[in-house]
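I'd like us to work through together how a protein chain folds, taking it slowly. We need material for that, and I hope you will provide a protein of your own picking. Go ahead whenever you are ready, and we will take it from there:
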Amino acid sequence: MPIATVNPANGETLKTYEAMGEEEIERRLQLAEATFRTYRTSTFAERARLLHRAADLLEADQANIGRVMTTEMGKPVKQARAEAAKCAKAMRWYAEHAEELLADEQPAAADVQDSGASRVLVRYRPLGPVLAVMPWNFPLWQVVRFAAPALMAGNVGLLKHASNVPQTALYLEDLFHRAGFTEGTFQTLLIGAGAVDGILRDERVKAATLTGSEPAGRSVAATSGEMIKKTVLELGGSDPFVVMPSADVERAAQVAVTARVQNNGQSCIAAKRFIVHTDVHDEFTERFTAAMRALKVGDPLLESTEVGPLANEQGRADLEELVDDARRSGAAVLCGGERPEGPGWFYPPTVLSGITREMRIHREEAFGPVATLYRAGDLDEAVLIANDSPFGLSSNVWTRDEAEVDRFVRDLEAGSVFVNGMTASHPAFPFGGVKRSGYGRELSGHGIREFCNITTVWQGA
């Protein structure tokens, strides 16, 4: 894939970039290694000052970088500005909490005495240069939720961003540099996917994090495993959205629409499979389908637009294949389901019912504004349907019955369970999945410790 900005609203190529050659990659690896030797000794106060400055600059840049993101990958511009604001919030959260999260830990006195030591502590130390392989769907947020904790821990970052968001990738490098971080602290590598393996094999790169597709995750994990390097993977998701009879069905249907079409439906944590108890199935379906049908699809730079184009032509083709396969296999199309005429990679909000296990869309992630509806006879069946997926990123449950809440929290196979609300990430809470959704955690104290050397210090009498 060429490194280029291609406007998904009309297919126009706006900017193209040459991939960095071996000499430039080597220069940047040398710079990262050299910078880490000094940066690792900086204080939390020094790092926090720089990260607060980056947050200030990002807030000031909200309108401009929002338009850049929208032009590169198609999200509605209001959502793009909100993404920038969320990134600034995460930067400030880590700037304010990193020192506490990485403070030395003191084991129990009895255990210290039993070990024969006069003092034992556990210290978190940075690893070194960390490679981040990031996707296009949240081109700022995915990077910042890695970069903010990594930099506050004393690591340095190397970013390989998706090839269709090069302007956003370069903006991030410039943002950290303008904030006062030295040149090698955070670098953007304009490279294709083929160059990732060689960088992962370089001894100067100590760890990697990837958010993206399952095949990309397998590749990075395989190479990192061979090189014995730590990885964190956040891969696909096909999150269930379960509605039980005690739920506020009207509210659940309203939230379900946002949960499905946020970011034009191109979100790993978007609700995709709507599992509704038979007692409220028809009411929910009517409300949900009507609201999906009423969404305004159009130019993502217009403030009134609710759903913009998909990010690329292949993504739309992949989504169409899933819908067409389901239709051929007997699914009912309650709204949408047909590619609109005209330029751009648009696809209408679509609702499918009558889904069976034989349909591809039952097992594969639909990365776009397509929802699938299931009818469940009781809680046990709802759990079975929800867990009948290779993915386990997040989940949504709507019920006022606390006994049902306990059952869902116990039995759902997912990294998160959101009750009476839609899945959202927050810097204070761990984020990640199970099964083919990946491993490791981002955000919170768990995320900042992922790329730390957890060092036991034992001192004798």
Summary: The chain has 16 helices and 19 strands.
